[in-house]
Amino acid sequence: MKKILVISIVLLLAAGSLWAAGKKEEVVAEEFVATEFEIPFLNCLTGPIASIGEYLQWGAERAAWEINQAGGINGVPVKVTGIDTAMSPEIGTVEMAKLSETALVAMGPVPEPVIMAAMPIAVRSGLYSFTATTSYEYAMQFFPWSISWFSPTDKKLPPVVTAWAKKNSGMKNVVQFVENYGAWPGMAKAHVIGLEAAGVNVLKEIEVPTDAVAFGPLVVKALAENPDGIIFAANAEKVAKIILELQSRGWSDNSKILVFSSADDGALYTTGGSNINGVMIYNYVDPGLDTPRWQAFREAFKADHDGMEPFSLSPNYYDAVYMIKRAIEETGVTGDPAKLKEERILIRDFCNNVENFKGLFFDWSNENGVPKDKPLFLFEIQDGQKVLVEKVVPTNK
Amino acid sequence: MEIFIAQVINGLSLGSIYVLLVTGFNLLLLVAMIIHFSFPVVVVFSMYMAWIVLGLTGNNIFLGVAAGISSAILFNIITAPMFQHIMKKRGEVDINSTMVLSMGLGMIITDFLSHSINSGFPIAFPDNLTGRAAGPFIQFGLISMSRGAFLALTVGIVFVTGLFWLLYKTKQGRAFRAIAEDPNGAKLVGLPILKTGLQSYALTGFLGGSTAILMAILLGSASPGLGDQLGHKVLAVSIIAGLGNLKGGLIVGLSLGILEALVQGYWTGTWSNAIAFVIMLIAILVKPKGIFGMKL
Amino acid sequence: MSLPLYYYLAIASIYILMTWALYLPYRVAHLHFMVVANMAISGYFGGYAATQWGWPFGAALLAGMLIGALLSWLVSFGIGDAPTFAVVIVGFTFIYITKTAIENWDLIGGTMGMFGIPMVKNLLLYAYLFVLVTGIFIYRFDHSRLGRAASAKFVDKDLATSFGVNTKHLGMFLQTWAGAIGGACGVFYAFFMNSLFPDFFTFHIIGTTMTMLFLGGYTTMWGPLLAAPILWGLPLILPTSIASWRQIIYGVILIVILLLRPEGAVTRQFIRKIQVKLKLVKLA
Q1: How far is A138 from chain B (nearest CA, A)?
Q2: How many helices (H) and strands (E) does chain B have?
Q3: Which of A227, A392, B279, B288 is deepest in the core (most CB within 10 A)?
Q4: CB distance C243–A45 less than 8 Å?
Q5: Nearest to residue A67, comparing CAs of A79, A57, A58, A55?
Q6: ipTM score here?
Q7: What would the pLDDT profile of B173-208 be if each residue is shown by its tens digit?
Q8: What is the rounded distance in angstroms from the CA atom of residue C8 to the CA atom of residue C132?
């Protein structure tokens, strides 16, 4: 009898608490119904990298448009709002400070100088922001309030460089051009690890001055070492100019030139033209992928940009918007300002450890804010297009 | 030895850019008493104008070159009244004001180029202008000199010689300098101020436009920040040589090119700019009026 | 206080101080851009001292000022009496050298930058106290015999010399103080931003502060005080489509002010008129 009584009381209490919890939810739902999910994007829409900012913004807005066409997030429309920092760290601080008071989640900032200035404010106010175009080494400084789109540089890059070296089996001695900016010297070190793994010797690192206008001296210095391969970790325009200078001094085998991902932008192709045909380049997305989703993205981008192929980082913020959608849907985030703090954390924890996220190009999972299984792609440049040569999946170990 | 010669030739080719720019800068000082700090930015602007016309006309070299030169002349003539307005009150401080005015013009041009032309991406000039397809002018092993470099160097020397002759040996040149140094005095002796003033601005514009074309041939491309990158060095070269000293500009410009090439070739790339500036700093501190003396 | 207002005021204090750092040497017609290098050097020093040695903010600030003053003082032996263009190029040189040194020095973060500079309570208050103290110092200077000597040198160096003004010592004095203010700015900046990046301290600061100086007016200390918060706030309140032309707007303002009102918005006559209106001084 006593047992029955205890069980009854426990059941009653459980039912009561469930009812109470349900009732509470009902009350809240009655109190707040989101009419729109706004995702602010701290971007550079003006200033020296305005065009790149527009390509990133385009990717994010494309995702929002697709989501809204398909019925929104839990039936609520989503809007990406571009906030311009003009690449100024100072403006970045004020804009991030504004977001820290109201935003549920944010995207950006871009690029590194603004990240450095504005992310400490996001961390301080508990706002989760998608730093989806910077390297792991910057994003990790602000964990768990930032997310890295890439795995650690010294883990992700060596395999693709090794793959390039193995494609050129006769190549034994390589010279590397390195420009001293941001994470590039770190990327250059990762290249060396990859080359050594393939048994290739790095003869010399040629430092590329940030404001160099002529490249003869650097090229003579490089060629004096008699290399049979060249690898680049420098700005796109400079890479193209150095390749032209190399060719004018007799370099003919473009397949033995490898360009790093950060130089994969318009300046490489507009400056290099057909002279860079055959040059190898690695990046994180494969524009040749034949899926309807990517092809639709690609065609839409080309239509909006005079036939230009999509910028390689545009898909990052496209995917970020989708990741936020999934986080909101799967964690039951309401957008209620009264629950701002908790819901920010819900999104943060979900995204930092997302499983099998369906990106534009591939599925991936995160562990503590870092992707576990994202591939890299090695391409050959042909008439301004990248033709896939090999897909490489690095491990974080 | 081969590498050393190759690097010296590289240095001469880089130096020829400095020579062309510093000559235009000095000319503005001599004929208009303007410290046109952003003169290299104006030159880059003309490169962009040439590029636009080349694009519109299916790479018509003649029209492209004409656009480059005429845009520089026009820009000079349009901005001339601003500088003249400031120069009404003479003295050291007003020369500073021309420098600040020039910086303001530079800010506007650079931002305009990065906003509005080619989405801010660098522009590349067609092979029929640069002559790239025809191969280098000289080539022995690593020793190489492009046709553009040879042309720029030759024209640089011709410009310096020609201007020296024009300014110091002809009546017209004396008129230019007289108006720059003392407009009221020049007026009193009956010099046609407006006509001569316009001629001097047109001349500097012509020099700037020609420099733009030569740089397009030599470098093959341009970006919005190119003018700023060169501006600081051009001012430094001009000060070290002695403001307004054409011959000094030629020697110091070429020397700086060779110095940079040797530092980059034999020592360090990332520090090369800083090293060049340290050496220039020492030269300025030791000889504030320039190695070859001011010619103002 | 709301966080956006906090950061607006924080950066405004930096711009006021930096424009004053330019204003002081410009009293003798020196555009002393070296203060930007002072800002970077002292900022990095302060950041390093705080993160690695655990220095409190006050100690970092003091050291930053001293370093800034010392460097500017040493250089002023060479350029204390030099023509403006020489002072300008020396400033550019130091900016290049400093940036290169920072980028190549892994100890202070190299190209990656410096992270984790601690937050300081009441930092904004300290910044404005510093603005106040600096303002009082500049006011006292402007109204002293030295201030009048500087004005004389600005107009006519030879005349000033003939009146017994040691123009070199005056230039050195002003450049040294400008260096100290630039150094202090760097430390404040580092602690406001909580991180540092080599590109924080480059030529964009010159363009902005120079516009502030010339728009506000370079003949009185009130010009920069007025122009810095307005010009810095302008891109924040303008719609993006207009704010995107910020550098062009700054350039146009600079040119228009040079042509129409060469001494800037706030001139000595203007201040005097206000003083007369407020009956602070009698009409002469």
Answers
A1: 22
A2: 12, 4
A3: A227
A4: no
A5: A79
A6: 0.90
A7: 888 888 777 777 887 887 777 777 788 888 889 999
A8: 18
